[in-house]
From TrEMBL:
Designated name of the protein: Elongation factor 1-alpha
Highest taxon, organism lineage: Eukaryota
Classification via SUPFAM superfamilies: EF-Tu/eEF-1alpha/eIF2-gamma C-terminal domain, P-loop containing nucleoside triphosphate hydrolases, Translation proteins
UniProt GO molecular function: GTP binding; GTPase activity; mRNA binding; translation elongation factor activity
């Protein structure tokens, strides 16, 4: 992968069976780096099971199944290139974590492709009052591209079957996305998605750089534990990088650190530049979207913020505010209910790293989940941080000081 193309993350969303997997599979198949032998194997299996019509979706489903069974499939399978961009498909469509990640913006997509079923009945259901609820957008700015995810019409090349349509192909539309601005000037924040032990190499945390830059030789501190060590090397799609920038999904090798010392949800930061710390408590502005009753002090749902999913106590509802103007309506209300917005002091039940939305947006927005649904969303306004006590500093980190 050359560094000359800008790297963007694309999320594919849509209703189950709308053709997400087929479309994504087809794009990756035609433009991506899937090994031809892998494709042939999947095609043969699909044919044996009379699933020829699912050929592309089958490719994706097989990759997902193997990934979920813990067979580490090269994440490069989830990439493809346009003339302008180097694209990573962030989340396997239909993944069980998908909603969780989609809502919090954990997946931090630069662009979303919404697939709507075009069959009679399916199309109407997809845009019905109970389906896609209007949020407000400018239809002149959003390309609507008719495609066949299976046959490939209008995906990469123009199709004679759609000669009434004069707009861009799907690939052209992706190329027309404005280049995202990356916060390289801020201190490093890299929330961990996973931690692997790789034979002959050692411990390799994996995650997406949200802000700042990660380089080999840097001394990093992992919040909330405070563990500090040196970065030996940084890789993306099996290629060594001299620096990883915001938006890059990378693995990096750290010295003298056991896998058990790092967890999903920990945040890597530069030890010399505003290192990440755990939050003792934080104040958030929340909007209650979907709760059957009332939320009062002491409520303890799960907070999904970047890659961490931790129970957090609503210690104190400070104020109820007007959603539109932000004006205070009531001080210290007894409860908040659907449609209400307010400021809440929250206390995590386990150590976790969060930041203010103004300083580090990806670590300052969250979803509140309870009863298997998203109850509220919010942004963090202020954080009371605590210094880790007795945090481990490895020998290599001491040498670098």
């Amino acid at each position: 992968m050359g560094k000359e193309k800008v790297h963007i993350n694309i999320v594919v969303i849509g209703h189950v069976d709308s053709g997400k997997s087929t479309t994504t599979g087809h794009l990756i198949y035609k433009l991506g780096g899937i090994d031809k032998r892998v494709i042939e194997r999947f095609e043969k299996e699909a044919a044996e099971m009379n699933k020829r019509s699912f050929k592309y979706a089958w490719v994706l489903d097989k990759l997902k199944a193997e990934r979920e069974r813990g067979i580490t499939i090269d994440i490069a399978l989830w990439k493809f290139e346009t003339t302008k961009y180097y694209c990573t498909v962030i989340d396997a469509p239909g993944h069980r974590d998908f909603i969780k990640n989609m809502i919090t913006g954990t997946s931090q997509a630069d662009c979303a492709v919404l697939i709507i079923d075009s069959t009679t009945g399916g199309f109407e259901a997809g845009i019905s009052k109970d389906g896609q609820t209007q949020v407000g957008y400018n239809p002149d700015k959003i390309p609507f591209v008719p495609i066949s995810g299976f046959e490939g019409d209008n995906m990469i090349e123009r199709s004679t079957n759609l000669d009434w349509y004069k707009g861009p192909t799907l690939l052209d539309a992706l190329d027309q996305i404005s280049e995202p601005k990356r916060p390289t000037d801020k201190p490093l924040r890299l929330p961990l998605q996973d931690v692997y032990k790789i034979g002959g190499i050692g411990t390799v945390p994996v995650g997406r750089v949200e802000t700042g830059v990660l380089k080999p030789g840097m001394v990093v501190t992992f919040g909330p534990s405070g563990l500090t060590t040196e970065v030996k090397s940084v890789e993306m799609h099996h290629e060594a990088l001299q620096e990883a920038l915001p938006g890059d999904n990378v693995g990096f090798n750290v010295k003298n650190v056991a896998v058990k010392d790092l967890k999903r949800g920990y945040v890597a930061s530069n030890s010399k530049d505003d290192p990440a710390k755990g939050a003792a408590n934080f104040t958030s502005q929340v909007i209650i979207m979907n709760h059957p009753g009332q939320i009062g002090n002491g409520y303890a749902p799960v907070l999904d913020c970047h890659t961490s999913h931790i129970a957090v106590k609503f210690a104190e509802i400070l104020t109820k505010i007007d959603r539109r103007s932000g004006k205070e309506l009531e001080k210290e209300p007894k409860f908040l209910k659907n449609g209400d917005a307010g400021f809440v002091k929250m206390i995590p039940t386990k150590p976790m790293v969060v930041e203010t939305f103004s300083e580090y947006p990806p670590l300052g927005r969250f979803a509140v989940r309870d009863m298997r649904q998203t109850v509220a969303v919010g942004v963090i306004k202020s954080v009371d941080k605590k210094d880790p006590s007795g945090a481990k500093v490895t020998k290599s980190a001491v040498k670098k000081k």
